[in-house]
Amino acid sequence: MKSEKINLIENDSLFTIGAFIKPFKVIINNKEQWRWIVTSFEDLTFLDGNEIEVYDYADNLGDLIPSE
Asked: Cα–Cα distance between 50 and 14 in angstroms, integer?
């Protein structure tokens, strides 16, 4: 599957059919909350309705989606 270069920003939201998630405690605006964090993907992932490939983790935001 080939895709054009995608530049992620922090507010991007991706949809995935299957993912492993776990609860994670975070502090948002000085308030402690629990959020679901995706730990790995097991099925297709989409951005703006288009299927894309993603990595489970990366050292940089831009590296979460492979470039061609």
From this structure: 10
pLDDT tens for each residue of 37-53: 888 888 888 888 889 98
Task: Give, in order, the Cα–Cα distances in Å from 56 to each of 18, 28, 30, 61.
Answer: 13, 23, 28, 11
Q: What is the DSSP string of 1-65?
A: ---------TT---EESSEEEEEEEEEETTEEEEEEEEEEE-S-EEETTEEE---S--SSGGGGS
- What confidence category does residue 21 fall into, taking pLDDT thresholds of 50, 70 and 90? confident
Is this prediction's pTM over 0.90? no
Nearest-angstrom CA–CA distance, 16 and 34:
20
Bridge partners (DSSP) of residue 20 are 40
